[in-house]
Amino acid sequence: MWGSVEEICRVFEQLERHMLDVVNGVQDGKEIRRSTFERTEQLSRQLTMLLNGQELLPRYILLQLSQAATILQNEASYMLTTADK
User: Fold this and answer.
1) What pTM was computed for the model?
2) pLDDT tens digits for 23-51?
3) Which residues does 12 contact at the CB level (< 8 Å), separation at least 6?
Protein backbone atom coordinates (compact mmCIF):
# COMPACT_ATOMS: atom_id res chain seq x y z
CA MET A 1 0.00 0.00 0.00
CA TRP A 2 1.24 3.47 -0.81
CA GLY A 3 1.43 6.49 1.43
CA SER A 4 -1.09 9.21 2.04
CA VAL A 5 -0.83 12.53 0.25
CA GLU A 6 0.17 14.21 3.52
CA GLU A 7 2.93 11.68 4.16
CA ILE A 8 4.23 11.98 0.59
CA CYS A 9 4.29 15.78 0.86
CA ARG A 10 6.07 15.66 4.22
CA VAL A 11 8.79 13.31 2.97
CA PHE A 12 9.20 15.24 -0.26
CA GLU A 13 9.60 18.55 1.60
CA GLN A 14 12.42 17.02 3.63
CA LEU A 15 13.92 15.49 0.50
CA GLU A 16 13.73 18.80 -1.33
CA ARG A 17 15.61 20.62 1.47
CA HIS A 18 18.38 18.03 1.55
CA MET A 19 18.51 17.81 -2.24
CA LEU A 20 18.97 21.59 -2.43
CA ASP A 21 21.79 21.34 0.14
CA VAL A 22 23.52 18.76 -2.06
CA VAL A 23 23.09 20.91 -5.17
CA ASN A 24 24.26 24.06 -3.39
CA GLY A 25 27.33 22.28 -2.05
CA VAL A 26 28.24 21.14 -5.53
CA GLN A 27 27.59 24.53 -7.11
CA ASP A 28 29.21 26.67 -4.41
CA GLY A 29 32.05 24.58 -3.09
CA LYS A 30 32.43 21.86 -5.71
CA GLU A 31 31.95 19.34 -2.93
CA ILE A 32 29.45 16.71 -1.97
CA ARG A 33 28.56 16.79 1.70
CA ARG A 34 28.46 13.13 2.61
CA SER A 35 25.88 13.29 5.42
CA THR A 36 23.51 15.43 3.37
CA PHE A 37 23.90 13.15 0.35
CA GLU A 38 23.23 10.06 2.48
CA ARG A 39 20.13 11.65 4.01
CA THR A 40 18.94 12.60 0.51
CA GLU A 41 19.37 9.02 -0.62
CA GLN A 42 17.50 7.74 2.43
CA LEU A 43 14.58 10.12 1.85
CA SER A 44 14.54 9.22 -1.86
CA ARG A 45 14.12 5.56 -0.99
CA GLN A 46 11.38 6.41 1.49
CA LEU A 47 9.55 8.51 -1.11
CA THR A 48 9.90 5.70 -3.65
CA MET A 49 8.23 3.29 -1.23
CA LEU A 50 5.40 5.76 -0.60
CA LEU A 51 4.82 6.29 -4.32
CA ASN A 52 5.17 2.63 -5.29
CA GLY A 53 2.02 1.33 -6.88
CA GLN A 54 0.42 4.69 -7.55
CA GLU A 55 -0.93 5.16 -11.04
CA LEU A 56 -0.09 8.87 -11.19
CA LEU A 57 2.89 10.70 -9.74
CA PRO A 58 2.78 14.34 -8.66
CA ARG A 59 4.25 16.45 -11.46
CA TYR A 60 6.01 18.87 -9.07
CA ILE A 61 8.00 16.00 -7.56
CA LEU A 62 9.17 14.80 -10.97
CA LEU A 63 10.02 18.37 -11.99
CA GLN A 64 12.11 19.05 -8.88
CA LEU A 65 13.96 15.75 -9.20
CA SER A 66 14.63 16.41 -12.87
CA GLN A 67 15.94 19.91 -12.18
CA ALA A 68 18.28 18.68 -9.44
CA ALA A 69 19.58 15.88 -11.66
CA THR A 70 20.21 18.33 -14.51
CA ILE A 71 22.16 20.69 -12.26
CA LEU A 72 24.28 17.85 -10.88
CA GLN A 73 24.97 16.53 -14.38
CA ASN A 74 26.04 19.98 -15.53
CA GLU A 75 28.32 20.44 -12.54
CA ALA A 76 29.90 16.98 -12.89
CA SER A 77 32.45 18.12 -15.47
CA TYR A 78 33.62 20.90 -13.14
CA MET A 79 33.92 18.47 -10.25
CA LEU A 80 36.32 16.32 -12.27
CA THR A 81 38.57 19.23 -13.19
CA THR A 82 38.58 20.44 -9.61
CA ALA A 83 39.55 16.97 -8.39
CA ASP A 84 42.37 16.80 -10.93
CA LYS A 85 44.05 19.94 -9.58
Assistant:
1) 0.77
2) 888 888 788 888 988 999 999 999 999 99
3) 47, 58, 61, 64
Please tell me whether residue 85 adopts helix, strand or coil conformation: coil
The answer to whether 1 and 7 have CB atoms below 8 angstroms apart is no
Instruction: Report d(CA 43, CA 50) in Å as an integer.
Output: 10
What pLDDT sits at residue 25? 86
Taking a C-beta distance cutoff of 8 angstroms, is the pair 48, 15 a contact? no
Intra-chain end-to-end CA distance of the chain, in Å: 49
Burial 20-42 (b: 16+ CB within 10 A, else e): ebbbebbeeeeeebeebbebbee
Please state, in angstroms and rounded to a whole number, the distance separating the CA atoms of residues 50 and 10.
11
